[in-house]
Design goal:
- The protein is α+β, with helices and mostly antiparallel strands and about 160 residues long.
- The strands form three sheets. Strands 3-2-5-6 form a four-stranded antiparallel β-sheet, with no helix packed on it. Strands 7-9-8 form a three-stranded antiparallel β-sheet. A two-stranded antiparallel ribbon has the order 1-4.
- β2 and β3 form a beta hairpin.
- α1 crosses α2.
- It starts with 5 loop residues before the first strand and ends with a helix.
- The mean pLDDT is about 85.
Length: about 160
């Protein structure tokens, strides 16, 4: 038994690595999830030791689901997305057997450090601007910048 930490069912499903919280909401709404043999409803809370089953066959567990944090140097041309139909994404290069989130994004023409994790709470805490995590970028430009453009960049870009 892992303990009695209660959490929302959609968070439990996401932490197990099955899918995102948003997709978990859909799976729950579709009646595909049972908790301890009973059909679950959106907003249900579960304990870590409850039996959560999807589609009558996939039993989820949080056992062995330690937090993972990975530094990945994204090359130019690689896409920062977790869309299932996308090709050449950061997740094509990193496979640890569980669902990962990116902490911040870089556009396809950029290269640099990206942080990847299976901890959605940490990813959200770092990426939300209200939490004040500063991000710094080094940018090469293809033309001479005017004084006003430099001043605007110095003030920060949203």
């Amino acid at each position: 038994m892992l303990g009695c930490v209660r959490m929302r069912l959609n968070k439990y499903i996401a932490k197990s690595g099955y899918c995102s919280r948003r997709k978990a909401d859909t799976v729950i709404e579709d009646g595909r999830v049972k908790v301890n043999g009973h059909v679950a409803t959106l907003g249900d809370d579960v304990d870590e030791d409850d039996m959560v089953v999807i589609d009558g066959k996939t039993e989820l567990t949080l056992e062995g689901k330690d937090d993972i944090f990975i530094g990945f140097h994204k090359p130019v041309g690689v896409i920062s997305t977790d869309a299932e139909d996308a090709n050449n994404t950061v997740f094509d290069y990193v496979d640890v057997g569980t669902r990962l989130f990116y902490i911040g994004r870089l556009d396809v023409a950029s290269s640099g450090l990206m942080l990847l994790t299976n901890n959605g709470d940490v990813a959200q805490a770092i990426t939300k601007s209200k939490n004040g995590f500063e991000k710094e970028y080094i940018v090469d430009v293809d033309r001479k910048l005017t004084r006003s453009a430099i001043d605007a960049l110095r003030d920060g870009v949203m």
